[in-house]
Design brief:
This protein has helices at residues 3-88, 92-100, 107-110. It is mainly alpha-helical. The protein is built from three helices and no strands. The radius of gyration is 41 Å and the shape is rod-shaped.
């Protein structure tokens, strides 16, 4: 066998081995890319769930804020009117109920109705 044919055969063998190695490496890369895509999709789904929960919490907070604002605006007037009604009708149960929650009813203040 000539030296040139031995070198050619060796180079061909090396090329074949490199081709096989490149094929296996590319398959591994494809598998890794598939796993990465799957994880990205899972992460995106979780992010969407978190975003939905944040929107729900924001809506609930807006309802709480609206209720708090309403209570601040209307609550004192209702309590004054209730106190006035308790004095005018001499209803001791309403006076006790208001006192239970820390609202004191005074005879002179209760005579004036609440104004808006």
């Amino acid at each position: 066998m000539k030296l040139s044919s031995l070198i050619s055969t060796t180079v061909a063998g090396v090329c074949l081995l490199l081709s096989i190695w490149l094929f296996i490496d590319s398959r591994t890369n494809q598998n890794l890319q598939g796993e990465l895509q799957q994880r990205q999709q899972e992460l995106q789904a979780v992010q969407q769930q978190v975003q939905l929960q944040q929107q729900q919490l924001q809506a609930q907070q807006e309802q709480i804020n609206a209720g708090t604002q309403l209570a601040k605006e209307v609550g004192p007037a209702v309590l004054r009117d209730l106190g006035s009604l308790a004095v005018q009708s001499k209803n001791e149960e309403i006076k006790k109920l208001l006192a239970k929650y820390g609202v004191s009813v005074k005879e002179d203040e209760a005579a004036k109705p609440a104004t808006r």
